User: What shape does this take?
Amino acid sequence: MPQIKEITVNQLNTAEFIKDKAAEISRIVGSGVAINALSGGVDSSAVTMLGHKALGTRLKTYFIDNGIMRDGEPQWIVSVFKKLGVNVEIVDAQDAFFGALKGVIDPEEKREAITQTFYKKVFGKLVKESGAKYLLQGTILTDVDETVAGIKRQHNVFEQLGIDPQEAFGYKIIEPLVQLRKDGVRKVAEAAGLPASIYKRMPFPGPALAARVVGEATRERIALVRKATSILEQELLPVKAFQYMAILHNDRVTGMRDNKREFGQQIEIRCWDSVDARQARPTQLPFTMLEKLANRLVTEVPGVVSVTYNIASKPPSTMEAI
Ligand code: XMP
Assistant: This one.
């Protein structure tokens, strides 16, 4: 396994990086076609811009609507890229993902179910249909580190685990960002012309809202955490934190509403200060802000009777709950 040579944010010359990577993509793909999946995160957005620069319309960009994204996400991302002259096609794959997640409660099994559905089932089909031999992907160095260290299997890391994508899925993967960490990717994204709403965007995990549901990720439970996420993102918008999230717990607790007992749902809020996600501390949010958030969650999200705020650091916590 070749050692990946890190480019730190201080070493990074964005104009040169973009030029070199676009040239490398052109060279590898030749006169063929490549495809990529855009999730709207800063990594896949930056890769889309690099691929677009290198290949123009010979890059087919898809947004896989897996049913576990945030509210309104597919349409918003398509509109952002339309303004940049990049055509993005939405692929409805909700049934495939919920089918694969049915009955799965173990965190790593969930990740594996999502990975297999994404790369083999949904993407395998798109690759066949498009005639592409290459998949452009936004893997970054931190994804590789955490996977190799066995902390969390990032759903986009293969080679470092001894998996040959060509053999496993029938296509080759190109990873132009693998020498960078998040801070470097943000600079590349900005230099590539993406708007601040993308290059400053909080990280969001590949397994999406399924990483924020402890236990089975059913359509109903995802809808609940999606609603909580949308309220949380509105309320914490002014907060300068690395990342914030709402988590739906598996065990219920006794609450009361309208003078009746309600054995309801628990939402945990996490909000992190961090530089590169390797270590993190909970943000000292104003208590009034937490109270307002809790109030909205118990009134606007059906069945929620308990809201907690995580105050443990990473490590030993991790940022996501699963
Ligand atoms: P953890 O939970 O490992 O998260 O402390 C560190 C950072 O990585 C993101 N994360 C993931 N991203 N697939 C991803 O693409 C995953 O399985 C995954 N798990 C965590 C997380 O959101 C945080 O920014």
